Amino acid sequence: MTLPTAATRRFQWFSQGVLLYSLGVILWGAFVRATGSGAGCGDHWPVCNGEVLPRAPSVQTLIEYTHRLTSGLATVLAVALYVWGRREFPKGHPGRRAAFWALVFMLTEGLVGAGIVLLKYVAQDARLGRAVWMGVHLTNTFLLVGAQTLVVWASRGRARMALRGQGTVGAVLGLSVAGMLVLGISGAVAALGDTLFPATSLAHGFEQDLSEAAHVLLRLRVFHPIIAVGMGALLVFGGRLVARLRPSPDVRRASAWLTGVYVAQLGAGVVNLVLLAPVAMQLVHLLLADCVWMCVVRLCAAGLAEDAPRLEPAAEPASRVEPV
Is the pTM of this model over 0.85? Predict the structure, then answer.
């Protein structure tokens, strides 16, 4: 194995720093939503209340404007990651493609955010269209974090991925990715319901969910914990199956991390529910959701690696036909 050069190590640190910074921006965006500060700049974008630098801003304006500034810096970092990635990785390398898609999803992240502002899906707006845009926003965020995670993975000299001929492993990993996207969207809708229709007690929250007159966001919110438990079982057992069929150290490590982080995520979800979704717990819950997603991406990268050892399930022996 070739030792990394000083330039390679610098790129590794930079790619990790970009990923961590992006997570911080994502959490601040959730803070904007949870505090109802999304209308802090009105329905203006990219300016704030018609001004480049808002004068005498309110607290909500400062929160929203700070998010826009940090998002702008995240875009600059994504451009730098792509340019540096083109120099670091040869043509056709998955790391270069991952850096490209990280930039694409960063740009679409900004466009989705702009759409939410311009359509006034902010503050206390409870239209169903807002839930749809939240789902789109969450999906794009996951894809962005996934692409940046793959850049970090590739920067460490990991093997390329082979998507074809993966059999059971490919099916399990594909189902895990799709399931995580569904879980993330349901979590975004549940968080929106918590923000718009806060419960005064746990019993009141259950009454809200089960009421025939409940808003559609509250009716959708009840599905999130059910999906979370089901996905937990899929990820834990699926991760162990992949670790058994692709028994490399990277796969086993990714599977163990996935199990541990998902257990922590479920625990945070229970605490979030019992405490009636305080802002701090919403942020912790979201951070752990992103960490679970990164573990799934790492498991996919390790399990689909070209040099991963393969142990496919034993095929059933063909029935033997006796000659007449």
Answer: yes
